[in-house]
Amino acid sequence: MKHLAGLNSLVSDWNKLSDKVFSSLELLDLALMEQDQDLVLNIKSDTIDIIDSFKKMEFQLVLSGEYDQRDALIALHAGAGGVDSQDWTLMLMRMYLRWAERNGFKSQVLDASYGEEGGIKSATIQISGDYAYGNLKSEKGVHRLVRLSPFDSDHARHTSFVLAEILPRVEEGVDININTDDLRVDVFRAGGHGGQSVQKNSTAVRITHLPTNIVVTCQNERSQRQNRDIAMSILTARLIDLETKRKEDEMAEIKGDHISAEWGNQIRSYVLHPYQMVKDHRTDLEVSNTADVLDGNIDEFITSYLTLQLNK
After folding, report:
1. What is the pTM of this model?
2. Residues 105-134: pLDDT tens digits?
């Protein structure tokens, strides 16, 4: 029913735009017959609105994938580089949380593993709202940071890497069925950042999917049931992603242009020293306002990449 409602809304929007176009054309004929300059100016203003609406709706055609309308899960993993990479992971997590806030999406940190000296080793966050996954799927890949390290006493320049996995929020039993016999569930005490949030009871959950050896954990919630539900939703998304990758690999053998979003295939560089620049290596888009980008203003990168995919 939700999918049907979305399709009805989409068709309705295109019909309204079509009606507005024909109405403007009829008014234009009338304005030309009566030489009404004021009416011509009004039509000109309406035409600008029509073109703007059309461009936005045309861009939505990019977001027509099977899961594009869904909520998104962002899994961040610090690369080699110790505390610098862990701090970069924390910066990226904040960037996506700020992007969600800027665009009216809801966000929630589902799980985070904090580093001993600072930053986070890994984190999973959920971004909820219409087409959250469709937009954020463009962020999948390795993100590279170049800066003067605040953790180096010599203030040397360091390069850090973070892998961002973007997964659609899917439902077990609806999008995919998981055999409970294929799961091993372990519970343990959650360890919080700074010591105060350490749970005395075994509320943290680790689920291992035995056929694929995929392991997911969740320890942010105080209830074991809540942590298990969140872990299952992450596992479900990973299994869907695994199946999607399998299909992509099959297509890649035919097309021969598949690029894996693994280590070594960085999609974007964020340079804070010796100059200020953020560059997307897939589209060659560059911006110099790095602070604005790190504060969540990444829409230009998202639009540029998705538009490139539409034109391929």
Report:
1. 0.79
2. 999 999 898 888 889 999 999 999 988 999
Q: What is the pLDDT of residue 297?
A: 97
Q: How far is the C-alpha of 33 from the C-alpha of 27, rounded, in Å?
A: 10
- As a whole number, mean pLDDT of residues 98-106 equals 96
For the chain, which residues make up each domain, given as ranges?
2-60, 72-173+257-311, 180-254
May I ask the CATH architecture of the domain 72-173+257-311? 2-Layer Sandwich (3.30)
Question: Residue 236 pLDDT > 60, yes or no?
Answer: yes
What is the largest distance, in Å, between two alpha-carbon atoms of the chain? 82
Q: Could you confirm whether domain 180-254 is CATH 3.30.160.20?
A: yes
